[in-house]
Amino acid sequence: MKANWAETYYKRQFELMRSNSAYPANNFFEEEVSLLLEQVGRPSATVLELGAGRSDIANILARQDRKIVTIELVEEICGYAKKHAHQNVQALCGDFYTIKLQRDFDLILYLDGFGVGNDDDQSYLLQRIFNWLSDDGYALIDIYQPLYWQKIAGQEMYPFGIENIIRKYDYDEAGNRMTDTWWEKGKENETITQSLACYSPEQIYTLCEKAGLQIIAYYPSGAIDFETGAFQKIASLDECLSYRIKLKKN
């Protein structure tokens, strides 16, 4: 399943961020990897990362003697990932709803992107994750929290402090989806938007259970305080922008 907006959005976002040198610093990814490893709680020799982008996370994991396979939809982003890949990273270009993988993995990551399609699409992807996961493996997936997105609908900001680009968060009540729209100043008619399904902890638990996966932990992320503009690293499960679930096979 490929959403009709996905390739256009991620390609243009990559171009905008690259032209403005706006990617997070390396220490951001180092901290994220440290958090991931803490949440996994045990060694993992083989890792699959879905929607891996430039493979920043994968390259750090690979330096710790892990074998990593990444899947990225956009050819230009995958090309960048291949050019800068650690020798232990295999960067694949494709749609993870259709790509064929003939192996299983100790750890599967899907960070900041789950919810591309409808509930049936999510269920299908979770079933694929079940099939790719080793019997004693774990998956970590980021889920968007609907209560947060309802509350902050309509908020605008400059992503990564880039003052010529505007980013607007919104919420589709009918579809229960967050939307994230970007445009350059003066080019309001040339927007790009991603639309991702939001799930409460109870809703995602039910979806995972149908796929034979059990949630064994919830890890809330932080939240943006739009009154101060600051990002709060600690937020409750009901107030966070997104939360991470840790899965194993039932």
TrEMBL record:
| Pfam families according to UniProt | Methyltransf_25
Give residue ranges for domain Methyltransferase.
47-137
Annotated Gene Ontology MF terms? Answer: 2-polyprenyl-6-hydroxyphenol methylase activity; 3-demethylubiquinol 3-O-methyltransferase activity
Give the record's GO biological process terms.
methylation
Q: Which UniProt keywords apply?
A: Methyltransferase, Transferase
Q: What is its EC number?
A: 2.1.1.222, 2.1.1.64
Q: What is this protein called?
A: Class I SAM-dependent methyltransferase
Organism, as annotated: Salinicoccus siamensis
